[in-house]
Amino acid sequence: MSTRRKSYLAFLLGPGGLWLTLFFIIPSLLIVAYSFLERRDGGGVIWQFSLDAYIKLFSPTGGAVINDFMLIFFRSFWWATLTTIICLLAGYPLAFYMSRQSRSTANILLFLVMIPFWTNFLVRTYAWKFILNNNGLINSMLQALEMPRIALINTPTAVIIGLVYGSLPFMVLPLYASMERFDFSLVEAGQDLGANYWQVFTRVYLPLTTPGVVAGCILVFIPVVGQYVVPTILGGGKVAMLGNILAQQFGPALNWPFGSAIAVVFMILLMFGIAIQFRMQREEEL
Asked: Is residue 155 part of a domain?
């Protein structure tokens, strides 16, 4: 590779690499370092090597600490999985419909899907709080129909609704990008060979749109599993997720090493799961 070409690539990759280094790699390394340090009583860390945070996290004698952590950990992964499944079931048909429309109609639908991004996520979540509140829109409509009110706010149901609402566009967009490039002559070929609609979908359409499915699932799952805003506002802090326990350790508890240890374990498990998912996708492609 010539020196000029190397300089050109460095010019193109430099800003992105600098951004990732400053705002991802260095903070991640600091979190890893903090997890192996001593806790300072007034907050922060003492730069002295210690495994106390991991011992507290994994010790069988941890009692309520480890039990609460494991409960929140599995709750976060379960809700993230459930949110991903709901978004996939709702987003796949929507993306398919969008991909079968004319260019002008598809652009309008894409515009409608992206409209929520024009408003701050915090504001949109508070809007859902007013909708789901005991005196909110849904319960007011039920009362007008002389039906009993439903306790929605500060419940897992409200949290799941908020998570799905906030994550659905991240599922639809990569699905649409994958479906929009699909060659439908392959569907006609499958039907000519005697395949029914279900066989064409499972053996032709779904495998060729799997990259969009995988991308959408990753874009939904990763942010949701560490959510803080939705469970805080719509769950009232009663149904905590990993983001809440991390905020508690770095905030009121002032235990940065323990919060860092939780974050490190979470990152390792998340990266391990993503690696398995990519490996399975690669094996299917081969």
From this structure: yes
Report residue 63 as tokens.
């009692």
Give the pTM. 0.85
Kindly tell me the burial class for residue 211, based on how many C-beta atoms sit within 10 Å of its own C-beta (0-12, 13-18, 19 or more).
Answer: middle
Please report, as a single letter, which amino acid is at residue 22: L
Are 204 and 188 in contact, with CB atoms under 8 Å apart? no
What CA–CA distances, in Å, run from 125 to 131, 211, 240?
10, 30, 16
Contact between 149 and 71 under an 8 Å Cβ cutoff? The reply is no
Find the domain containing 205 and state its range.
61-285
Tokens 């949109």 correspond to 124
Q: Is residue 5 part of a domain?
A: no
Q: Quick one: which of 226, 91, 270 has its CA closest to 164?
A: 91
pLDDT digits (tens, 9 = 90+) for 203-215: 888 888 888 898 8
**200, two tokens:** 């064409």
Q: What are the Cα distances from residue 75, in Å, to 156, 160, 241? A: 10, 12, 7
CATH label of the domain that carries residue 68: 1.10.3720.10
